[in-house]
Amino acid sequence: MPLTNAQRLWERHEALARIGATGRGGVCRLALTAEDTAGRALLLSWASRLGLIAEMDPIGNLFLRRIGREPDTAPVWTGSHLDTQPTGGKYDGIYGVLAGLEVLESFAERGVVTRRPIELVVWTDEEGVRFQPTTMGSAVHAGAVRLEEALGARDADGVTAEDALAAQMAALGGVARRRLGSAAHAYVEAHIEQGPVLEAERRVIGAVTGIQGLRQFAIALAGEEAHAGTTPASRRKDAFVAAHRIVAALHRLVEDATGTTRFTIGRFQAAPGSPNTVPGRVEFTIDLRHPDLGRLERLTQGIADICSREAAPCTAAVTPLLDSTPVAFDPAMVERVRAAARRLGHEPLDILSGATHDAKFMAGLCPTAMIFIPCRGGVSHNESEAVEPEHLAAGAEVLAEVLRELAEE
Amino acid sequence: MPLTNAQRLWERHEALARIGATGRGGVCRLALTAEDTAGRALLLSWASRLGLIAEMDPIGNLFLRRIGREPDTAPVWTGSHLDTQPTGGKYDGIYGVLAGLEVLESFAERGVVTRRPIELVVWTDEEGVRFQPTTMGSAVHAGAVRLEEALGARDADGVTAEDALAAQMAALGGVARRRLGSAAHAYVEAHIEQGPVLEAERRVIGAVTGIQGLRQFAIALAGEEAHAGTTPASRRKDAFVAAHRIVAALHRLVEDATGTTRFTIGRFQAAPGSPNTVPGRVEFTIDLRHPDLGRLERLTQGIADICSREAAPCTAAVTPLLDSTPVAFDPAMVERVRAAARRLGHEPLDILSGATHDAKFMAGLCPTAMIFIPCRGGVSHNESEAVEPEHLAAGAEVLAEVLRELAEE
User: What is the DSSP string of B84-100?
Assistant: First the structure.
C-alpha cells in the first residue's frame, strides 16, 4: 500500500495550474508576479493545515518547516520552484514542491516523526525569465550571485526584483523572515526529466548522477558581400560557405559514440539575407554540454582551433556567452535514490541532467540528489508538458523513502 | 586619336550622378520617380542639341533617333537604363546610355552618317525595385510581360506604374509617342561587368557570349524543437543538422572545376533561434546559375533528389522561386565585339554575364551583343561602384566601331 496519496498529488498540480493558466493547457506564472504570489499563497494554505512553519529569506526563497524529534539538528531539505516559463507547463518545478508537500502530509497522516526537521524549499526565480540570472534564488543562497546584484535585476518594464519581492512579501503578510544561507543536512529535489530518455527506456525513476556542464559561444564570420550572378566561387569570400565548413569540422569534433556530448546550433543567420547576394556575414550560436570539465575544456579549445583554421578567406570571431561548470552529485546520495527505487519495485536508470536545476547550487553546500520521473515525449518548457499520474506518485514515494532515511541520520 | 570624347563621357556620368545623389557617393534614382524623370530630362537636353528625335512607347521606353542615309531601314539600337538600385552606383545601366550618346555625338562631330538610323534606347525600370518585375521595359517590349500587367504593378505606397509613368510623360511634355514593339536591325548594349573577372584578368573589354540561366529555390526543413540540454543527438529531429547535411551534398553536386556553375545560399535561418533549443525549422534559399539549360535542369533534379534523400528524420520541401532561361548571344555579333576590340588594341575576354540585362529580351528579337568594361573590385549594386575613366572611353570606342559596322549593313 503506497505511503503517499496519488489522487491528492495530481489534484494539487491541477489546482496550481489554474493560477496563471494560459487557456491552452499551459501556465504563465513568472517569478515575483501576482500569479507567483497567488501560487505561493495557495501552497501556504495547504502547509498551514499541516502546521508547517513558513519563513522567507532575503531573496524570497520560501521554507516550510516540519519539526523533528531533535529540532536543533540540521534539517533535511527538499523542494524546487513554482515559477514557470511564459508558455510553461504544469509540472516543471511544481512537481518537486508538491511531491515534497505530499511526503510531509503523508508523514503527518501516518504519524511519522523524523529525528531531523524536514524543510520544503520553494526557490525564487528558477526560470530566470522575468529577472536574470536563472536559478536566482539558489544562486544567491549559495553565494554564487550577490544578494544586491540579484535584487537590482530589472524586468522588461524596469521594475527591480527588490520591489517585486517586497510586494510579494507584503501580500503574503504573515510569513516570518529568515537570514540568507541557512544550512541543510542534505538536499533532495524531485523533478520531471524534461527529456525523452526515461520514457524511451520505459523507466519510472531516474537516479540523477549530476548536472552536465554547459558552455555557449557566439561565432561571427565576416566575409564580403558579392553579386551571386557575377562573382565566381574562386573570388568569393562567402561567409556562409566558411560557416558551413566550420560546422562540418565542429560536427566531427563533437562526435561521441556514447551520446554524452550535447552539441546544438540553435541560432544561425546569414546577412544581408538576399537570395542573390553572397553573404558577407554569418552569426551562429553553439550550445555545448558535457558532464566532464576536462572534456568541455578540450572541446572549447577545439572550437577555437577550428574557427581560426577553417575560416579563410573569411575571418571568424568566437565569443563565450555562458560557462556553467559540471556538477556530480554525491555518490552515496545517488545510491540512496537507486536503493529506494528498487525497494519500491522501480528499476532506476542512472541519468545525467541536461538542464540545470536549483540542486546545482545545493550540491556545493551539502550532499545532494535528484529524482527524475518521465514526461511525455520529453517535452518541457512547453504548454503541452504532460506526465502520468502514477509517475508523479512513484517519484513521491521514492522521495519519501529517501527523506525519511536522511532525516533519521 | 580616339573617336569619342573621354572627358565629356566622364563628366556626363558625374552630372547624372548628381540627380538622386545619396551624399555617400551613390545614387538613388528609382524607376518612374521624380529623380528618374529629372535624369531623363537631362539626357533629353543633351540629345536635343544633337537633333535626336525622342519618342516613348507605352511602357515608357525612351528612344532617341539619329536618322541615316536610308531613313526607312530598320534601325540599329544601343542603350541600357538610367534607373538605379536604392543604394546604387553611378555606372550600372547609366554607362550603356551615355556611351551610346557619346557615340552619336562623336558621329555628329565627325560628320559620320550611317546607312541605317541608330536609336539610343533607355529601358524603363530595369532594376525592378519600385515596380516588379525587373527589366520591365524590355520584357514588355519583347512580349514576355503583358503591358497591362506591368502598368498595374504597384509600389510600396500603392501607386501604379501606370500613374507614375503618366506623371513622367506629362513632366517630359514634348516627347512623341511610339507604338509598342518596334523592330530593330540589331542591338548592342555596353555595361559595367558588375563582377571581378575583367579586373582580375587585366582586360579592358569583355565580349559577352550570353547571359547565364538562373533558378532560385526556397528550401524549408521541418524537424522538431527540443531542449538542447536534455535531448540526446540520437533522439533529435534537428532541422539545422539536416539542412547542414543537405548543404554538404549540394556543394558536392555543384562542384565545377571550370568555375562556370554559380551556387549561392544567400538566406539561411534557423527557428525558433534560441541558443538552447534544437531548431525545429530551417529555411534557406538557393541561387543557381549556369549558361547551359540542360545542366540547370540536371542540377534542379539533383537538388530535389538531395533534399528528399538527406532530410530524414526531418522533412524537406523545395519551392521554385524563379526560372530564367539562359541566353546565348549571336556568335557573329560576339565576334564583331572581339574584332572591334582587337582593332582598338584591347585583347578581349569572352565573358558570360552573371547578372541579367535588357539585352536578354532583345536577344530573342534581333542579333544582340553586349560589351563589358571592368568595375573596381567587381563591386556593383553598391554606392562604392567605381570605374576607370579610360575604361569608359575604351568601351565607347568599341561600341562606336560595332554600331558603325551594323548601321552600314
Answer: --TTB-SSTTHHHHHHH
